[in-house]
Specification:
CATH topology of chain A: Rossmann fold
Strand order of the largest sheet of chain A: 2-1-3-4-8-7-13-9
Strand order of the largest sheet of chain B: 11-10-12-13-15-14-21
Oligomer: heterodimer
Helix content of chain B: 25-40%
Largest sheet of chain B: 7 strands, mixed
Helix content of chain A: 25-40%
Number of helices of chain A: 12
Largest sheet of chain A: 8 strands, mixed
Structural class of chain A: alpha/beta
CATH class of the largest domain in chain B: Alpha Beta
CATH superfamily of chain A: Thiamin diphosphate (ThDP)-binding fold, Pyr/PP domains
Number of helices of chain B: 20
Order of helices and strands of chain A: HEHEHEHHEEEHEHEHEEEEHEHHH
CATH architecture of chain A: 3-Layer(aba) Sandwich
Structural class of chain B: alpha/beta
């Protein structure tokens, strides 16, 4: 981390987006994470994605649990409300927040300790409910703030900094998310911003539970030889199934979906993901096939990244609950309180 | 053989049934018929943690005076469950009655010599009249209601009307039910000596009162309190509160034009998620609540500390049951006071409301949302199984249409635009309550980070000692502000204060009302103070100071209310005498009168304090 605050002024020719904001308007406080931490690259990718999507920063809410990853919402979108909740419980707080105001964009930022251990239950249930959110797990396989214990996503056989091998089976959150009914599941790598930014943009525009498992090496405790979550290891074993360009101007284009070619996928809101298919027979829309593919490649020692599963026509929790268009938090006395006449009728029914 | 009990409009009937046998609606029909004759009843379900097969009881206290507490003892037992026969027979008052199914002979030794035995071959009658086994079971219940109507001299027309109302829309069912009713009634009139010494006589003591359970009323309170979000996890005895809320919302909160819901209800995966969702929704400006019982409160502890420290409104309906652990899931207690008052680690204090009956469950259920927004903290509505799951006769619910939701101190976009200084934890008015902003309010101002870690007045993270102390002391100031916002205690005192006073709250109240009448009849002077909220108003401690002897009546083993009074008011513990009922059954007036009488006498014999010996 640095103690030197970044100056507020910027070059007059710094690019602006449609709202007239520059990148700087999407930044947050100076990071207090270790220099080189993968999480800071993810924060930078979120900033980039929000800038490119022309999001008004104050219309975004960022929620997190506890841990290194959960600290990061302080480091992006300084004009957004943030909520650093309790360990493993971000999904429930986000679910409630989302139901209270359907008009904001919700980022849930979590880590592998936060989501795969203490918060595995809430992770699962928020996904299966289809909460409209971007759920990001900054996955480094290790507990950083408490100095390097294995997390539940650490691979079997992966070695700790002190040389101890992990004996437990890992939890693959991306595969779980597919199984649990997430309608958008991707895996990224904090070291590959080119891949990551379009994934985040597509996730924001997706309606429903969008889950991103982002491998994000811990430079302090899990970046050594023998670790399967180090920069070197992930770079070496990264196997992207596709790359994508994300386009907001919403012109649905029909095209054949041939291996190795670019195919557009139109999401519910009309946004278009131009998908460049890299892996041979990978079918983005087939839940079972996606899980099988990920499992097979991982068995072969590869880390599968890219957009793993997408249901572009998913509906979200608000639609399941049939809530009114107006945010619930904007309803007033007239909409909420039935009044004394209705109460008199109710009394009459109980005599 | 003692004299058979004779009583008009003042006796207790108890039905012993098998869970799942369809007896509940017949028993309710019996109770409602008495009410329709203008005679108040107090009913209680005593049921096991079971779906089918285990014993269940329904107690109907007929009370012309309108006493709503449990009386204790049984004057007429209707034992329809062989499993509990001996227990049921033992409970009958000397001179009382048993009305039983005499199809199979029961040896004399299974009765008692001091009770009156009325047998009717119910099974034989239904077996003769019906072939279908389910019909036999269901109509047997209606047949015994018919027989009881003759034995107790009830007006059959009232029961017929109720049957008509119950099956409105399913008219085919009306006639068979009426037939069964008369089958029982006619048999009793022909073969049994009618009426018994116990009689129901038409009166005019019910008035416009309504018959409602506390969970239903509290749920409606949440609707009138403006709650738009509920997250909950099923747990006895609170589940029917959330289910009632959903029913009320379907009736009152569906937008007519679009068919869409002006509410959201989520059945969460556990209590942690329930309270987490409530906190998220309330942080974002919706009025939100959860409903639970003791084990749920235990699970919610961490989040409750967050809501206290980050200052987020939340409403919790705690329908208390017998603890600790799984405890007595279907029995009543007031045993969560301490786990709610000081919920979570570190220094915390929480606001509680103590409704005494379904009417107050409605009123305080609505008030809780104003208080939560005003105080920006969790508010606990402390119900219990006795209030929540039993229907009670209470005055009609009232609503003032001039009332507007008090959303508390929320800084708007205009206020921010006008340059008003926003410090999320800044006490601008001296009441300890800061302003908050809702997410998405203003493009450039008012955003802050909500966290459970320590922070300064402007929500910036800080572990500096003075900054922490400053914040903790403000929270205490805010808690003191709550004293004047929670409902004031209800005082009953003569022109001259009595020497002794009694303090009580919640579901103890109906029994206490009756106990105080009994004391008055006996010429015993006793002042009374009913607590309606926590933190306690100063008047509570004044009341204690004014009296030589103070009784604290509550329904838990460890005198939790007494603990709170001692702790919060720095009261000498020796001044507070506990009267404790904690066997899981609702406290009775008899119990209170008995316990207090013994200690009052003792106190009158011995001086309170020995005079210091002369030097």
């Amino acid at each position: 981390m640095t103690y030197i605050a970044k100056p507020k002024f910027h070059h007059p020719k710094l690019a602006t987006n449609q709202l007239g904001f520059t990148h700087r308007d999407y930044e947050g406080a100076i990071s207090t994470l270790c220099a080189g931490c993968g999480h800071d690259s993810i924060s930078a990718a979120i900033i980039e994605a929000c800038f490119e999507l022309d999001l008004a920063p104050h219309r975004v809410a960022k929620l997190s649990g506890i841990g290194c990853s959960s600290k990061t919402p302080t480091y992006f979108l300084g004009q957004s409300h943030g909520f650093n909740s309790v360990h493993g419980r971000m999904p429930s707080v986000l679910t409630g927040a989302n139901l209270a105001n359907r008009e904001l964009i919700y980022f849930g930022v979590s880590g592998d300790g936060d989501s795969a251990s203490i918060g595995l239950g809430q992770f699962a249930h928020s996904i299966r409910r289809g909460v409209n959110m971007v759920y990001i797990v900054e996955n480094n396989g290790v507990y950083g703030l408490t100095k390097g214990q294995f997390s539940a996503t650490a691979d079997k056989g992966s070695r700790s900094k002190k040389g101890q091998a992990n004996s437990d089976e890992p939890i693959d959150l991306a595969s779980m998310a597919i199984l649990l009914g997430a309608s958008f599941v991707a895996r990224g790598f904090s070291g590959d911003k080119t891949q990551l930014v379009p994934l985040i943009k597509a996730a924001v525009e997706h309606r429903g539970a969008a889950f991103l498992d982002i491998i994000s090496p811990c430079v302090a405790f899990n970046n050594h030889p023998g670790s399967t979550k180090s920069y070197d290891y992930v770079r070496e074993h990264n196997e992207a199934v596709n790359s994508l360009d994300f386009m907001v101007p919403r012109a649905p284009i029909k095209a054949d979906y041939q291996p190795g070619t670019v195919a557009p996928v139109t999401q519910h809101d009309g946004s278009v993901i131009n998908l460049r298919k890299l892996a041979g027979e990978y079918d983005l829309g087939d839940r079972a096939a996606a899980m099988r593919y990920v499992a097979e490649r991982e068995k072969a020692g590869e880390i599968v990244t890219g957009l793993l599963y997408l249901d572009p026509d998913a509906i979200d929790l608000h639609e399941h609950l049939n809530t009114v268009e107006m945010p619930l938090n904007a309803l007033g006395d007239a909409e909420l309180i039935p009044g004394s006449e209705a109460l008199d009728r109710f009394n009459n029914s109980l005599r | 053989m003692p004299q058979p009990i004779t009583a008009t409009n003042d006796f207790v009937v108890k039905f012993a049934n098998v869970n799942g046998s369809g007896s509940a609606s017949a028993n309710l029909l019996f109770a409602k018929s008495i009410m329709r004759m203008g005679v108040p009843v107090a009913t209680r379900n005593i049921f096991p943690s079971n779906i089918q097969g285990l014993p269940t009881w329904y107690e109907v206290r007929v009370s012309g005076k309108g006493y709503r507490g449990r009386r204790g003892g049984v004057d007429l037992m209707v034992p329809m469950n062989p499993q509990t026969w001996d227990h049921d027979i033992a409970e009958i008052e000397p001179g009382g009655y048993v009305f039983y199914d005499s199809t199979r002979p029961i040896p004399q030794s299974r009765f008692r010599p001091d009770i009156n035995i009325i047998g009717m071959p119910l099974t034989e009658i239904v077996n003769g009249a019906y072939t279908d086994s389910r019909q036999r079971q269901l109509f047997k219940n209606i047949i015994y209601v018919g027989a009881l109507s003759a034995l107790l001299d009830m007006d059959p027309a009232v029961i017929e009307t109720l049957i008509g109302e119950q099956f409105k829309g399913k008219d085919k069912l009306i006639k068979p039910n009426l037939d069964a009713l008369h089958m029982g009634r006619d048999y009793a009139l022909q073969h049994l000596q009618c009426p018994l010494g116990l009689k129901v006589e038409r009166a005019d003591a019910v008035g416009d009162h309504i018959f409602i359970d506390g969970n239903n009323a509290a749920a409606l309170g949440a609707v009138y309190g403006g709650a738009s979000f509920c997250a909950w996890y099923p747990i006895t005895p609170s589940s029917s509160l959330a289910e009632s809320f959903e029913r009320h919302c379907r009736r009152f909160r569906v937008d007519k034009a679009t068919g869409k819901n002006r509410f959201a209800i989520v059945q969460a995966e556990d209590e942690l998620a329930s309270i987490g969702m409530v906190i998220g929704a309330a942080w974002n400006g919706s009025r939100a609540f959860t409903t639970t019982s003791g084990p749920g409160i235990s699970l919610m502890q961490e989040f409750l500390g967050l809501a206290y420290f980050a200052e987020i409104p939340a409403v919790l309906f705690d329908v208390q049951r017998g603890g600790p652990s799984t405890g007595m899931p279907t029995r009543t207690q007031q045993a969560d006071l301490l786990s709610c008052a000081y919920a979570s680690h570190g220094d915390t204090k929480h606001v509680m409301l103590f409704p005494a009956d379904p009417k107050e469950a409605f009123e305080m259920g609505a008030l809780a949302f104003d208080l939560a927004d005003r105080l920006q903290t969790p508010i606990f509505v402390m119900l219990d199984l006795d209030i929540g799951m039993n229907e009670s006769l209470v005055p009609p619910l009232k609503w003032d249409d001039a009332h507007r939701m008090d959303r508390g101190k929320v800084m708007t976009a205009d206020m921010l635009e006008a340059g008003k200084d926003f410090g999320r934890y800044l006490d601008v008015d001296g009441d300890g309550i800061p302003y908050r902003t809702l997410p998405g309010t203003h493009p450039k101002r008012g955003a802050f980070f909500t966290r459970g870690t320590t922070k300064d007045r402007y929500a910036k993270y800080s572990e500096e000692g003075p900054v922490y102390v400053d914040n903790m002391d403000r929270l205490l100031k805010k808690f003191n502000t709550a004293k004047s916002l929670v409902p004031a205690p209800e005082l009953r005192e003569g022109a001259e204060p009595a020497k002794a006073g009694v303090i009580y709250f919640g579901s103890t109240s109906p029994a206490m009302d009756e106990a105080l009448d009994t004391f008055a009849e006996q010429g015993v002077r006793l002042d009374a103070l009913r607590l309606k909220g926590f933190p306690f108003a100063d008047t509570v401690f004044d009341f204690i100071a004014r009296h030589d002897q103070i009784f604290v009546v509550e329904q838990n083993r460890d005198a939790q209310l007494r603990f709170l009074i001692v702790n919060e008011g720095d009261v000498d513990p020796a001044r507070l005498i506990s009267v404790l009922n904690y066997d899981g059954t609702p406290i009775t007036a008899r119990f209170i009168v008995d316990a207090i009488s013994k200690k009052l006498v003792a106190a009158n014999v011995k001086p309170f304090r020995k005079k210091a010996p002369a030097p």
